[in-house]
Amino acid sequence: MPIILILIAVIGLGIFWGYPKYEMMQLEDQARQQLQSGQFAALEAKYKPILERKKIELTILDQYPNIRFYTRWLEDENKKFSAKSEQNVKNIA
Description:
The protein has helices at about 1-35, 40-55, 85-90; strands at about 55-65, 65-75. It is of the alpha+beta class. The chain has two domains: about 1-35; about 40-93, no CATH class. It has a two-stranded antiparallel sheet with strand order 1-2.
């Protein structure tokens, strides 16, 4: 009788601790599948009008598992920076 109770307790604790980990694993797999399917073209198209209004260029380089988001602020593209700022950029580069 006590062995059965201990066995039931161990199984109950295993389910109690194991199920959240199982759910997290399922969510991670789902996210991984979505990233691999290349859904970023739809994302770019969805936000393109907003980005054009704000004068931002967004490029998404999708080479799973390395996904990079590049943004370029077009508003400051033709502005002339001070000589000190240009010198700092040259020193960093």
